[in-house]
Design brief:
Distance between the termini: 59 Å
Largest sheet: 4 strands, antiparallel
Helix content: 25-40%
Number of strands: 14
């Protein structure tokens, strides 16, 4: 009794220090530290543009009571499975007839009408806040959702499920002999999708980074302003590539020399930029649609603006756009007879500066629309 007294006294002291809320909570909630997802029945958990750009579409509902069932599923995924679930609703208008294929009885175009009415109000349950479609957590969450059997989706007497295509999915599941698909639950058709509250431009391909964008700021005939998707590189001027991180940081801060007084940004890159600028101006004076572009290690001069390189043939090869081919021929090197040296290749010259031996079509670099949108809205700050 004497040995057990100190332990009993200590236990009583700890218990008296606990708040009422802590005492009421389950013991394992107090002992096991983990991140809990909020699941408040009074909150709607609607999707906003602040949520992740990539999410898992778990399932959808429609019909009377669809909104309530979507809300119940979102709460269950949050409370029982620790998943950040949200609800999004959308109304569809099918009042306008659609033109079908073929002709009607008296020669007019056939039309289609929606059999289930002119309007539909659907609710979707989406899960997660993923920054990329390649996010490993997104793949794990998707796999988990496909195998879940939520109680809120179970069929019961007196309750009509408003989950879209539930009966059809159950039939396919029973007919399918694949062991992997047999393990799937009522959300087995879940898939990754984009946040419907974000504009399409957010998901545009990433453009050049801020450092390169600053290098081309103020350039009159910048390739970043080229309206087409493709152009032809006619001149390439290489500079000095900076590898050391401390030098890159100093250059980004606007410093021209290091602590020892040595030049950080050697003249080769500046010379490359100047040559590209002179060639661009010279070609513009000749009437060519020329552009210049400056990167970390080189400066380019291109000519032309095109929507495509050319159509793809049946054999898989691309039939080069005739206008692109003409530019390549115009600015490509010439074969000349150099007497005792024989036939040599001589590059074209513009403003006394040599162009590339072989011009090539390239894709036009673009500014990053998604980065611009993210910076304006403060997403992921």
């Amino acid at each position: 009794m004497v040995r057990r007294a100190p332990f009993a006294l200590l236990a009583a002291l700890i218990f008296s220090m606990l708040t009422p809320a802590a005492v009421a909570a389950p013991a394992w909630h107090r002992l096991v530290p983990f991140s809990r997802v909020e699941a408040d029945p009074d909150k709607s958990y609607r999707i906003t543009d602040k949520n992740g750009p990539w999410m898992v579409l778990a399932t959808t509902f429609s019909g009377q009571g669809a909104g309530q069932q979507a809300h119940e599923l979102a709460l269950e995924l949050r409370s029982s499975h620790g998943l950040e679930a949200y609800v999004q609703d959308k109304k569809f208008d099918f009042s306008a007839d659609l033109n079908g294929r073929g002709r009607a009885r008296y020669g007019s175009r056939s039309s289609w009408t929606n059999r289930r009415g002119n309007q539909s109000h659907e609710f979707a349950v989406l899960v997660g806040n993923f920054s990329s479609i390649n996010d490993k957590n997104a793949a794990k969450t998707l796999k988990k959702i496909k195998r879940l059997w939520p109680k809120s989706l179970e069929a019961s007497e007196g309750r009509v499920s408003r989950q879209n295509f539930r009966a059809w999915r159950s039939l396919l599941l029973n007919l399918n002999q694949s062991k992997r698909k047999q393990q799937r639950g009522p959300m087995g058709k879940a898939f990754l999708t984009t946040n419907p509250m974000l504009p399409p431009e957010y998901f545009a391909p990433k453009g050049v980074d801020q450092f390169v964008l600053d290098m081309n700021r103020g350039v009159k005939y910048s390739l970043l302003d080229c309206p087409g998707k493709f152009t032809v590189t006619v001149a390439t001027f290489k500079g000095t590539v900076v590898i050391k991180q401390e030098r890159i940081k100093a250059i980004a801060e606007g410093k021209s020399r290091d602590a020892h007084g040595r030049k950080l940004w050697q003249s080769k890159l500046a010379d490359a930029a100047m040559k590209a600028h002179e060639v661009t101006l010279a070609l513009r004076k000749k009437g060519y649609d020329a552009y210049e572009f400056h990167d970390r290690g080189a400066s380019l001069v291109t000519v032309g603006s095109f929507e495509s390189i050319g159509p793809t043939r049946r054999d898989g090869k691309i039939e080069l756009n005739p206008k692109i081919y003409k530019i390549m021929q115009t600015f490509g090197a010439r074969k000349i007879n150099a007497g005792s040296r024989g036939i040599v290749t001589q590059p074209q010259m513009v403003a006394g500066i040599a162009l590339d031996i072989q011009p090539i079509p390239v894709q036009v670099p673009k500014r990053s629309l998604s980065s611009d949108y993210a910076s304006k809205t403060g997403l992921f700050r």
